[in-house]
Structures are given as C-alpha cells and as structure tokens.
Amino acid sequence: MAKKPGYTIEQHEQLGIELQAMRDRLVKIQVELSHAYPIKLASKVDPACKAVDALRCALDDQICKEHPGNKDMLRVYYRANRADYKEPESPAGDKQR
After folding, report:
1. Which listed site, 25, 29, 31, 96, has its alpha carbon 20 to 30 Å from 46?
2. pLDDT, tens only, 26-77
3. pLDDT at residue 97 in the model
4. How far apart are CA 9 and CA 67, in angstroms?
5. DSSP 12-64
6. Exposure b/e, 14-46, CB count within 10 A at least 16 = b
7. pLDDT at 2
8. pLDDT bracket for residue 79 (50, 70, 90)
9. Cα three-residue angle 89-92-93, rounded to 5 degrees
10. SS3 65
11. C-alpha span between 47 and 3 (Å, rounded)
12. How far is the C-alpha of 43 from the C-alpha of 55, rounded, in Å?
C-alpha cells in the first residue's frame, strides 16, 4: 500500500490556526451560555472542546514526528502563547442582548 503524503508545514500551520480559533470560540460560547443559562446547558460544550483538543494533540504529535528536532513545530497546534497569535473576534451577531 502506498504511503499517504501527509500535510506540508503550511497546511499544518493553517489547520493549527483554524483549530485554535475553533477552540477559542467554543470556550467563548461556553462562557456566554454559562452567564445566560444553567451550567448544565453550558457544559454541553465540553465534548466539542475535548474533541478539538484531542485532534490538536494528535496532530501536534504527528508534526513533531515528521519534523524531529525542529522547535518551530512545537507551537503549530498550540498557538495561544505565540507572539503572532491573535484571538479571533466574535462574529457581529454575538453581541449580548
């Protein structure tokens, strides 16, 4: 069976940005819900956060295997503490009532 090509560094970078934005947005949604509804409802966001986290972890392991010794790969999927990280803005429709 032929080996699959994997992602380029650029593809990993783009996916890392998207997954970080997804996680950040899910956390914001959970906080917003917790201010408006019982915690039982807000906690329904947890499985989605955990799924995104599991994917980020697996991809982080993969990129480090593909590029051993390259320290730049350590922050591809965990971007929040990077100097170039920008927290995504909430969509315009997210304004609280």
Report:
1. 96
2. 999 999 999 999 999 999 999 999 999 999 999 999 999 999 988 888 889 9
3. 43
4. 9
5. HHHHHHHHHHHHHHHHHHHHHHHHHS-HHHHGGGHHHHHHHHHHHHHHHHHHH
6. ebbbebbebbbbbeebbeebeeeeeeeebeebe
7. 82
8. confident
9. 125
10. helix
11. 32
12. 20
User: How many C-beta atoms surround the C-beta of residue 96 within 10 A?
Assistant: 7
User: Could you give the angle at which helices 9-36 and 46-66 cross, rounded to 10 degrees?
Assistant: 160
| Cα(81)–Cα(95) distance, integer angstroms | 26
Give all strands (DSSP E) within 1-97, no chain letters: none
What tokens were used for 96? 């609280």
Q: Which amino acid is it at 53?
A: D
- Give 67's contacts (C-beta < 8 A, 6+ positions apart): 9, 73
Residue 83 amino acid letter:
A
